[in-house]
C-alpha cells in the first residue's frame, strides 16, 4: 500500500508541475488577446452568472442526528446563495414509502431537478428512474441507487476511503505491535455505506498485519453508540485501538468508555463533528483522530442540479458537462491539523 501511495503521489506532483508549466504558457500566449469574449458554460463567469429560475425538489431522511441536520441546513444555505434557485423541500423522513410519494409529487409538479438523499437507495431506485424518464435530472446524494439509470449525477462521501483512512492511521499508531487488539463500532450494518467503511478498514489493517478482533454495530445514535460500546468493552478487557464509524454515536461511545473507566487505547472517530474535533483538540481523552465524511454533499447536489438544468458545467474542469459521479475525500483530522477543519465542522 505504501509503495502504491508513493507512486500515486509522484504522479500527482508530476501532473501538478505540468499543469503549472502549462498555465504559464497559456498566460503568455493569451496576454495580448482580446479578453472580452463571451463566457463559456464552464467558465467561472458563465458558471456563476444568473440564469433562468431552476425549481429543485429536495428530499432527505429525518434529521435524527447531527450529520443529517447539517446536511439539510447546508443544502438550504447553498440554495439561498443563488437568486435563480427555487428550492422545494420535502419533510425529512425515514419511511421509504413516504419518501417515494414525495418524489412522485415532485414528478407531478414538474420540478426542473430533484436532489435526493434516499433513506434507502435500493427502495428509491424505481421512483428516481421514473423521474429521469420524465426528463427530470436526479442528483443522488450519499446513499446510492441500485441502478445507474436512476440518477444523472451522484455525489458521495468516500465510505470505503473512510475505512482506509482509519485503518491507515491505526497502523501508524499501533502497527508495530503484532498482537495489537483492534476494535470497531460500526454504524447500521444493513447499509452499504457501513459495509464499505468496514471493508476499507479491514483492507488497510492488513497492510500492517492487523485485523479487527472485536466488532459491534450501532445505529448512528448516541443511545445506540453507548449500548454497543458497553457490550464491546465488556467482551474485550484489553484494546489497543478503536474505530467508531460516526461521531454522533461517538458521544455515546465515549460515555460508555468513561463509565467503564477505560483509557488504555486510542480511538478514531468518523464524520468530523465539531464535538469530536474539540475533544481531539483538548488532548484529554482517548479520541485522537476523526475521519471526515463531508456534510456538504446535499449542498453540492443543489449546486450541481442548478448547473445541469441551466446547461452549465463545473468551472474548474475542462469538461463542458457536469460529471456523472463525484466522490469526496476522507481526510484524517488530528491535533496537528484540527484548527484547519474545525471552522467548517458540523455541530452535533
UniProtKB/TrEMBL annotation:
GO molecular function annotation: carbohydrate binding
> Out of the domains of life, which is the source?
Bacteria
The signal peptide annotation in the UniProt record is 1-27
Matches recorded under InterPro entries: Peripla_BP_I, SBP_2_dom
Which stretches of sequence are listed as region Disordered? Answer: 30-54
**Where in the cell does this protein reside?**
Cell envelope
Q: Where's it mainly located?
A: other
Q: Which UniProt keywords apply?
A: Signal
Q: Which GO terms describe its cellular component?
A: cell envelope
Q: What is this protein called?
A: Substrate-binding domain-containing protein
Q: Which organism is it from?
A: Arthrobacter jiangjiafuii
